[in-house]
Amino acid sequence: MSDETLPAFASLNVGDPVAQRDVEISRDTLVRYAAASGDFNPIHYNDAFARQAGLPGVIAHGMLTMGIGASVVEEWAGSGNIVDYQARFTRPVPVPALGAATVSVTAVVGALDHELQQARIDVTVTFDGAKVMGKAQAIVDCA
């Protein structure tokens, strides 16, 4: 990987926003994700089943939501520079039968490791103003 694709470590400061994007998730998105992942749990396509399970209706796959957060960091950091990514699921993202649910993703420098030349990027994913993932963090290699 060439140095041109790496984030410039010397220019990073804790608290700096590095990426932001809104992403729409429709029922079509869920169908495509289910086919790619093999996750055909009915809570992701059947409203009656989802409600019976105690959910507000069909919800997005947690790993889809997590992947959306990672993709925003990857677009900033460059392919192959994320060395770790973790998150906890804290609340579901309901997806309406018509239209889409919009999640907002913000990535901010949370910490810098000067010895390893790595940045911890804190990722916030929200839906309707509420966080849907907790402690979502990516470690980006900037060396």
Describe this structure as you would to a colleague.
A hairpin with a 4-residue loop joins strand 3 (100-113) and strand 4. Helix content is 23%, strand content 37%. It contains 3 helices and 6 strands; from the N terminus they run E-H-H-H-E-E-E-E-E. The protein has one domain (3-141): Hotdog Thioesterase (Thiol Ester Dehydrase, Chain A), CATH 3.10.129. The protein has helices at 27-37, 47-52, 62-77, and strands spanning 17-26, 82-89, 100-113, 118-127, 130-131, 133-141. Strands 1, 2, 3, 4, 5 and 6 form a 6-stranded antiparallel β-sheet that branches. With 143 residues, it is α+β, with helices and mostly antiparallel strands. The relative contact order is 0.24.
List the helices and strands and how they pair.
Layout: E1 17-26, H1 27-37, H2 47-52, H3 62-77, E2 82-89, E3 100-113, E4 118-127, E5 130-131, E6 133-141
Antiparallel strand pairs: 1-3, 2-6, 3-4, 4-5, 4-6
